[in-house]
Structure to design on (193 residues):
């Protein structure tokens, strides 16, 4: 089953142009990955899984004006969300220069005028309010919340792509207003600020 069919199964309908751009993204990722080792994900199946993971939250999130992805890496989930959500301004924060260069290349190649690539650590950015802050495979929840603080106000949502350890991470903090949305392979931690 391809990504489009998987998403349709979950009632997520996206224009064909999104899948055309994702195909181009995957082709570029494959070429760049051979030279620059942008991600440990080498197989088409694993990359498709990452893309599905990135897009699944569209099924439960309301539209946003702005998203910031902390530690975007090769583009998961931030670049994939930017490809799908062209009316949303997406800031990709990636301090590793080779990954940031790849993200900048994808932005130019796919003409993603809704993307800003920040080739620095999130702690180096000027504070501003963002509607949705995402992160996948960066650090534990408490640290992600701390990193998000300068960009969050009442109403900002934090969406962290997690594994099963998420239950241990949130059970210690009784003050959190959160939901955990589970799929077969992913746990999405959605925190309301």
């Amino acid at each position: 089953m391809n990504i489009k069919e998987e998403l349709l199964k979950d009632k997520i309908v996206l224009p064909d142009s999104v899948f055309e751009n994702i195909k181009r993204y995957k082709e570029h990722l494959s070429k760049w990955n051979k030279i620059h080792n942008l991600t440990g994900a080498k197989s088409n199946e694993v990359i498709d899984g990452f893309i599905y993971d990135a897009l699944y939250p569209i099924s439960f999130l309301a539209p946003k004006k702005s998203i910031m992805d902390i530690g975007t890496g090769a583009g998961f989930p931030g670049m994939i969300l930017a490809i799908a959500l062209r009316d949303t301004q997406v800031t990709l924060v990636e301090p590793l220069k080779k990954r940031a260069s790849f993200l900048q290349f994808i932005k130019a190649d796919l003409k993603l005028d809704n993307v800003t690539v920040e080739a620095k650590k999130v702690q180096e950015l000027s504070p501003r309010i963002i509607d949705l802050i995402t992160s996948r495979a960066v650090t534990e929840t408490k640290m992600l919340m701390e990193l998000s603080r300068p960009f969050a106000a009442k109403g900002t949502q934090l969406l962290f792509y997690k594994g099963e350890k998420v239950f241990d991470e949130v059970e210690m903090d009784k003050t959190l207003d959160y939901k955990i949305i589970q799929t077969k392979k992913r746990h999405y931690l959605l925190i309301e600020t």
Q: What stands out?
A: The chain has a mean pLDDT of 93. Helices lie at 3-9, 16-36, 44-55, 78-84, 97-109, 141-148, 166-171.
